[in-house]
Amino acid sequence: MKKILDFWQNDPSLSPNISTIHVTNANPGHFVPLPEKLDKALVDALLQENIKALYRHQWEAIQNITQSKHTIITTGTASGKSLCYLLPILDKCLKDNTATSLLLFPTKALTQDQLNTFLRLSPSTFHSSIAIYDGDTPSSQRAKIRQTARILLSNPDMLHTAILPHHPNWERFFRGLTFVVLDEVHLYRGVFGSHIANLIRRLKRVGQFYSASPIFILTSATVANAKEHAENLIEEPFQQISDSQSPRGTKYFLLYNPPIVHEELGVRRSALSEAVRMSGDLIVKGIQTLLFTHTRKNVEIGMKLLQSQNPDKAHQIFAYRSGYLPTERRKTEEALKTGKAKAVVATNALELGIDIGGMEAVIISGYPGSIAATHQQAGRAGRQKQDSLAVLVASSNPLDQYILKHPEYLFENPPEMALINPNNPLILYQHIRCAVFELPFRQNDTFGKLPWEDIHPYLQVLTLNREVFATADRFIWRANQYPSQNVSLRSTSGDSFLLQVEEDDRLITIGELDQASVDWMAHPNAIYLHQGQTFIVQELDFEKKLVRLSSFNGDYYTQPLMDQTIRTISEEKNQSVPGGAIHFGEIEVTRQLKGFRKISWLTKEILATEELELPPRTMRTVGYWIELDAVSVQKLSEYNLWSGKPNNYGPNWEKQRKLARQRDQYTCQLCGIPEKGTPHHVHHKIPFRQFPSYEQANRLENLITLCPVCHHKAESVVRIRTGLSGLRFLLSQIAPLFVLCDPGDLGSHSDPQSPISQGNPIVMLYDNSPAGIGLSETLFEKHEPILNSALEVVQNCPCGEGCPSCVGVGGENGSAGKVEAIAILKILNGQPLRL
Asked: Single GO molecular-function term (predicted)?
């Protein structure tokens, strides 16, 4: 690994861009003998796999589990977490022919991976007792699995819809239930995690009915509150195993800032192109590499670029993302394990812990959005004790740039917390419906840790709705409905669309897209990329859920133009507060494709913009919004702390704009693309708002002609957050702590001149799920403590102009609006403004 580091550090085009090299020293590991009481057949299987000893943390976890202690293992990537539960499960099953175990995984890839490990470590005579039970399991095999499975590998959705509602068919399995494993529980947070916690309540209730009290074994990536999260999820006391004693090589973690390509504007080369370049260097040096990028489209673009730059290795460069057929994903996973794949470009679908063999290097194109995800992706390298390398290639996103200037944010801060609220009334109501279908409730029953007094009102509502029949001492399901099929554990919904290509007079399915993505990825005439091949969308059939593709050899790709609007349906509550008013009501969020751009592969020039309207996608939900009144805006303006009004560039703007374009010969001064019909943009090098007068701001020497794409790049560098957008960022980070949800469970919106409030400024937070689950209403009720906390956080934050811990960050040369946000918060908290 030192050779590639030396190569980069001696390359004058790369070396100046490496801002940080963070080194984690090698650790020889701490080994202990295999437990003496392990079944002999299991010991023999371990020896065949060359496992002659355990890491100390594995031994500690197994001791806890065999002593019937609920255990969560958080020892990081490549530390052998799965062996912590595999060994006690197999040992118990081999010694007790009635014992059963249920293992729940968040993805099918993880399920398949663990099945293979179970099969390797168990005697062949036991293989028929190990089974996967998920949506892909053929119906012809399901009855046999119910009758014979001792170790069942499944997922939360199948437990919710196919196992618990039909538990009488699983009586044998539930009577022997000894262990329950939940893998990757850091994913079970927010609304999704709150559903999972109630699912576990139902599982324990059914288990109790069959006299089973299983031991729960959880694994997780590092989160700030892993033990607390486990106890909230399972409602049992937990032991945590967090000190990894597995051997590891030296880990080099580089932070890399792409070079500036226009000094005056501060525009940098794209993160993806630099990530591809560095990946290419690694491939040439024979270092197996995994390149992470944010979007499915960037996976395809990255793969295509990497193959074109390394044509002799093109057949050894793979892509991995959602939307591929299972056979394609398994092929890539196998190529990784065997070493056939020299590089894989992937979304975070490869972030989870499936075995990918001896990966040596990881390149991360753009900050993944959280400290935990960054370390999880970086940890995919070095999984076989060798030295490893991770590189975070920063994008021009302000958060990326902040991290490069403050590497301690990434390397010294704890990862994010996982929060859930199982007692959210709407979520709880849905699962009590499911639970009463599964088993009647008797008087004084509990549901998890909830006492009868908390459950009884829900059962009374179900009785009034004629779904439940009440007798003297019990509540029995009476409706014809099957409740769990109408309760989604996840926020996503809708059927998948099949992607089909005509080959030899027949349609071949090459992949699938979820309903939420089909508009922007597969609209008519969209260029769709799949495993390095390029297709054009010929037809999008909403009725048949089909996308018809054909091969495409053009020199451009497409970029969708989406429009989002928010309007109020009804206002249910409002209240006067200092500085304005707060509101709660039903809103409608509408997203619609309005057209698309054709962008040159070679120059990134916008070749054309075409109009295209697809049916709007609407989501009715509920929102809470803060309205600033005119008096507050006037007060902020008097202190020069209001930047919510659109720029008025002054009476000489049109003249200066024409002169600038004429001087620059109607050509983009960054990429060299000439105007073609539509005038280029004219950009202020130093932001307009930073001048005392329009005359100074509009001087020709402060103006430059840019095409729309380059203008967007330049604007991101000098991005200036208004106080309103800073407040929106701050509230979106703080609000989840008050309603115990994940930040993604809430949408946010701000508008300095909102039609929702007759032109007054607003900041809005809304439930990011259809109909809502009560988050926004709780925020409305907790408005005062939320605003108090927000002001306390931003005032106590030691940063100068803003950071990810308070109001967010501006561009490299911009402002984050911290002072303005503090002023707005003071007004909303009824405090006086002082300069």
From this structure: 3'-5' DNA helicase activity
